Amino acid sequence: VTALEQAGVAPENPFAADVEEPLPPPTTLIIFGATGDLASRKLLPAIYNLRRGGMLPERFRAIGIGRRESDDEAFRAHARDMVARYSRTGLDQETWGDLEPLLEFVRGDLDDPALFASLAERVQAIDADGPPTQHMFYLAVAPSYFAPIAQSLAAVGLSDQTRAPARLMIEKPFGHDLESALALNTAISSAFEEPQIFRIDHYLGKETVQNLQVMRFANGILEPVWNRRYIEHVQITMAEDIGIGRRAAYYDSAGAIRDVLQNHLMQLLALTAMEPPVRFDADTVRDEKVKLLRSVRRYTSAEVPDYVVRGQYGPGWVGGEHVPAYVDEEGVPDDSRTDTYVALRAEVDNWRWAGTPFYLRCGKRLPRRVTEIAVQFRPVPHLPFARADIGDVEPNQMVLSVQPDEGASLRLVAKVPGQSMKVRPVQMEFKYGTSFLGDSPEAYERLLHDALVGDATLFTRADEVDEEWRITQPVLDRWASDSDGPEIYEAGSQGPADADRLLAIRGRAWRQI
Amino acid sequence: MTPAAAAQSGPGHEYPERMRWSAEAVSADQIDAELDRLHRAAGGPDRVLAVARTLNLIVVPCPDRREEEVERALDRLGSHTPSRTLVLREHGEQRVDAAVVMECETPGGAGRVGLCHDRVLLSLDRPRLEHSASLIAPLLVSDLPTVLWLPEPRTPIPDPRLLERSQSVLVDSALGGDDDLRRLARMAAGIQVHDLAWGRLQYWRAAVAAAFDSPEQRALLPDVAEVEVRHGPGGFQAALLLAGWIAARAGWRAGPLDRRNGTARAAATRDDGADVEVSLRADAEGSCGGVGGVVFRADAGEIDVDRCGASSSLRDLFAEALQPQPSFARGYPPAVALAAKMAEASG
C-alpha cells in the first residue's frame, strides 16, 4: 500500500500520459436549436470531425431538439447535408455511417414542460443501457431562452451531477447590457453552478488567439519588453468587409459595440495585456483576465466622446461591388442610429501598462477582413546615423495576425544594400501555414472537445462577462442620451474620419486595413 | 554535366504550380544552385508565395516494388509536404543524377499566401550512396529538423551518418516483422522514432486511458490477471505494440510470446509478483489501426474497449508523426522495447 493510497488519494491513471487528446467520458449531447443556423453550420460539422478524428467517446449519443416537424430520419438527413456542405474535411461515408445511428431528434416547444419531461426520460433510457453518461446541453437558441431552458432542465433533474457531469454550453450575447447580463447569470446560476457553465466566445478557439499566450509566455525575449517602458501603444483590430446580411433584427439592436467590442475585442485585450498565469488551467488563466479587465479604466459620461468613436456605413464600393448604406439594408429602419463601427481608446491602469493606450476598433464594410493585434514599440532613444538622409526609421512593430492569414511578423529596420547608409523597414514573418504540417481544427471542434473533457480554460467565466459589460456600459449610456448619431463612413473606406482623432498624438496612426 | 531539361513553368496558371529541372552527373553545388534559381523564379513582386519552413525529409532507398508507393505517398501529402524532400535511389551509373521538382500551391483567396516546397530525387551508385550524407548535408534547409524515412522497417540505412544528421526516424512497424521491432527498439533508445503504427494506435491509447479514468475502474488495474488484444488480418504487429505499451505503462514485466492456433500468449508479471496473461488473438472482425478491441479481466470485473473510433489517412498519420507529439518521445520507446522483448521467442 503506497503512502498515497493510505492517504486516500487515488493513484494516477498510468495510461493517460501517452494520450495526445484525451477521450471525453461517455456523453449524451443535447442540442437545443438543432436545425438552426449555428448548429447546422458549426456544431454538426464539429461533431462529425471529432468523430472522424477519434475524439468522441465510445458511448456517445447526440439528441437534437427543435420545433420543426421532424424525426430521427429527417434530422439525420439534415445533419448529413450540413456536414457535406460545411465540414472542413468533407464527408467520409465510413465515418458518417458510424455517426448517423448516434443522432436522434426530439420535437418540442421550448416553453412546454412536457418537452423536458420526455427529454429526461430519453436520457434516462440511454443511461440505463450502461455506465451513466455526462449530459452536455448545447443551447444553440436565442439568448432569451437561455435561462428558461436552464431552469426547465434543473426542474426535471437534468442539471444534477450526482452520477455524472452535467454541463451547459451557451454562446454570446450574454445579455444586452450590464443589468441584463447580471440578471442572466443569476437566472442560469440558479439552475447550474458556475463550473458547469461553458460560455463560448468562439474567438478563443482560434489557433492564433491561443498562440498569443504561447508567444507571450513561452518566449523569453518578449516578456522583458512587454510593458509600458518599451511598448508605445497597441492596436487591436477586427475588420469585416461584409455587411449585416440577414441579421438586421439582431444587429440593429446590438451594433458593433455589443456584437464584437464587448466580447471578442475585450478578450483579445485581456489576453494581450494580462499578467503571466502561474499555470495554464481554467481558473488561473481566467483570474488573470478578470484582474486585467478590472484595471481597464471606466470612462465617465463626459469622457466618452474623447475616448470612443462610433460610425455607421453609408453606400460605397467593397470588393469591386457597389453596396448599400446600412440604413438601406433589408430590415433596418431608415432612421437607425446603430453603430456598425466603433473605436475605443482603452487605458489600462496598472503598473505594467499605465500610459500605454490600447486602441480597439471593429467594423463592417471596411476594405477587407482582418483581425490582428499590432504592438507598436517605442522608438530608439538615440540614432547614431545622420538622420537627414538615412531614410525611414520606423519603430519596431509586432503584428499578431488572427485572420485571414494566421501568423506573426516583426518589423525591423535594415540597411539598404549599397554604398550609402540608407535604411528601410523590413519584415520578419512567421506564417502558420508555412511552419506547421497538418490542419488546424475549427474553433468549434476545439471548444466542443474541451467542454466535453471539462476543460473551461477557453470559455468565458461569469465575472469576465460582468467586467466586459462594466467597461462598455458607460459608452452605451452616453450614446443613448446623445442627440448626435454615429458618423457615416463610406463603405469600403477605413471607417469614420473621427476615429483618427483618437490616435492623433505623437504621430500615431491607425494601421491600414 | 549535361542538363537534361531546363526549368519549366506550369502553363496556363497565374502562379507556377510545378517547376522541374533534371540533370545527369551533377554536384551538390549545382543542385543547390538550381534549387535557389527555382525559388527565385517562383517568387516575384506580383506573387504572394512563401517557402514552407517545416522540416527536411530524407527518404532512404527502398526495394523497387516500393518505389511507386513511396512516390504516391509523397504526392498525397499536399499541404503536409515537408519543406524539402530528398529521395535517395541507387542506380548502376558511376555518377550523381538529380531531378528537382518545386511545387507551389496557388493561394486560396485574397490575403492568402501560396506555399512552395521541393523534392529532389538523387540517383547514386553504391559507393556514393554509402557516403550520401556528404551529398545531402549541403542540400538540407538550415535550422529545420531533419527526418529520415525508412519506407520499410528493415530498409538498411546506406550511410550511418544520415542517422547522425537526423533528429528523428519515420517508419511504419506494421510493415515489418518481429526482427524489425527489435531493430526499432534499439533505434528508439538513441533517436526519436516516429512510428506510423504508433500513430494509428492513438485512438486505442486514448480509449484505454479513458477506460481507466474513473477511480472505480482504475482500482481494477492492480488486480488485472488477463489482457486480450484482438487484431484484424495483418494487425499482429500493431496488437503487439499496443500490448507492449499496456504492459509497460502498467509496470508489468513481460516474457516471450507463444503462438498457437491464431493466438499468441505471453506471461507477464505484475508489481506484486502475480501473473498476468497477455494474449493477442486474431479476429476476422473489423479493426482500426490493426486492432479490433482490448479486454482487461480481473476477479472483480472486466473492462472491454471494443469500438473503433477513428480513421486516419496516411497523410494525417504523416502529419501527426512529423509534429512534436510528446507521446512519441515518452511512450513509444518503452512500448516498443517491451513489444520487442515479447516478440523474442515468438515462433
Q: Explain this structure to me?
A:
The complex is a heterodimer of chains A (513) and B (347). In chain A, strands 7, 8, 9, 10, 11, 12, 13, 14, 15 and 16 form a ten-stranded mixed beta sheet that branches. A six-stranded parallel beta sheet of chain A has the order 3-2-1-4-5-6, with helices on both faces. Chain A has 513 residues and is an alpha/beta fold. Chain A has helices at 3-6, 37-52, 72-86, 93-99, 113-127, 146-155, 178-189, 207-217, 248-273, 282-294, 304-307, 432-435, 443-452, 462-481, 498-503, and strands at residues 27-32, 60-66, 103-107, 134-139, 166-171, 197-200, 231-239, 308-318, 321-323, 341-346, 358-363, 370-377, 397-403, 407-415, 423-431, 487-491. The longest helix of chain A is centred in the middle third of the chain and has 26 residues, at 248-273. In chain A, α2 (37-52) packs across α13 and α6 packs parallel to α7 (178-189). Chain A has 15 helices and 16 strands. Chain B has 347 residues and is an alpha/beta fold. In chain B, 33% of the residues lie in helices and 30% in strands. In chain B, strands 1, 2, 3, 4, 5, 6, 7, 8, 9 and 10 form a ten-stranded mixed beta sheet that branches. A six-stranded mixed beta sheet of chain B has the order 12-13-14-11-15-16, covered by helices on one side. Residues 1-16 of chain B have low confidence and may be disordered. Chains A and B meet through α4 and α12 of A and α8, α10, α11 and α12 of B.
Report the span from N to C terminus of chain B. 53 Å
Question: What is the first-to-last residue Cα distance of chain A?
Answer: 65 Å
Name the beta content range of chain B.
Answer: 25-35%
Roughly how much helix do the residues of chain B carry, as a percent range?
25-40%
Average pLDDT over all residues of chain B = 84
Low-confidence parts of chain B, pLDDT < 50 over ≥5 residues?
A: 1-16
The biggest beta sheet of chain B, please?
10 strands, mixed
Which overall shape of chain A is indicated by the principal axes computed on the Cα atoms? globular
Gyration radius from CA atoms of chain A, angstroms? 25 Å
Tally of helical runs of chain A: 15
User: Could you say which structural class the secondary elements and strand pairing of chain A correspond to?
Assistant: alpha/beta
Give the helix/strand class of chain B.
Answer: alpha/beta
**What is the beta-strand fraction of chain A?**
15-25%
